[in-house]
Amino acid sequence: MREIAWVFVDNLGRELEILLNKTKGMWGWMKINLRCINFECHEILEVDLNNDFRYQYTCKYCDTVTKGVLTLQRFQVLFDLGIICLKKGFYKEAVSNFASSLERCYEYSIKRILYNNDKTKEEIEDIWKFIKSQSERQYGAFLFLYYNVFGQKIETPSVKFRNDVTHNGYFPTEEETIKYAEDIFNAITKILFNIVDLKKDYEYLLPIREDEVYIDYISFISPFDFFTLTDEGSVKNNKPKFHERYRIFYENENLDVAVG
Length: 260
Ligand SMILES: [Zn+2]
Known about the structure:
Mean pLDDT: 83
Oligomer: single chain
Low-confidence stretches: 1-29, 254-260
Helix content: 40-55%
Strand order of the largest sheet: 5-6-7
Structural class: alpha+beta
Number of strands: 9
Bound molecules: zinc ion
Strand content: 15-25%
Largest sheet: 3 strands, mixed
């Protein structure tokens, strides 16, 4: 039996049936690949991306129920979605996801710095309310906090380009989108290179309940990329390169990353 997703009428008045199996690749970019928690099975399962990153899914191979939280920050998922849109040719959407990713990285950094300075989760959330819906204020708060701790000024890259795409209806080319992705990637990795040194953990950003587990997931931007394994252990000296990472994502579709 054919599974019809929906029917639409084209500009000549013809009814076109869109079949589910044909559209899967085209419309399925809000899915991510997560593994079954049963180590004897460990199959990759396609799961709908949701807003709070909490998941409960049943394995179709062994019936094991996995209940847990993604070991990810929102800025990582947004960047991955940007990469998926880029690969599929949705350049406008890609730019928007990359821009959001950097903004959420600012939020993550602000909270991480405050937490490291012994502010409680409640105190942080309480003051965050003042700037929650204003991204320029968030950037301002980030700029000064980060400068105070690390002595570096982080600039938001390609603001005019982002505004043209997101507000003025500009359609970017593939080349422009890749360049923008690289600029955002460089800004985020520059920030994280310092942030990963902060002593206090950020567990409260990934709260876990008693009956949950952390679900592993490899993101395009990974804090582990800053470290190199040596005989003495791991050393933080590595600055990840966008094009290397992009090539891996393109060539190895089997990585446990969000799929398009
Ligand atoms: Zn399983």
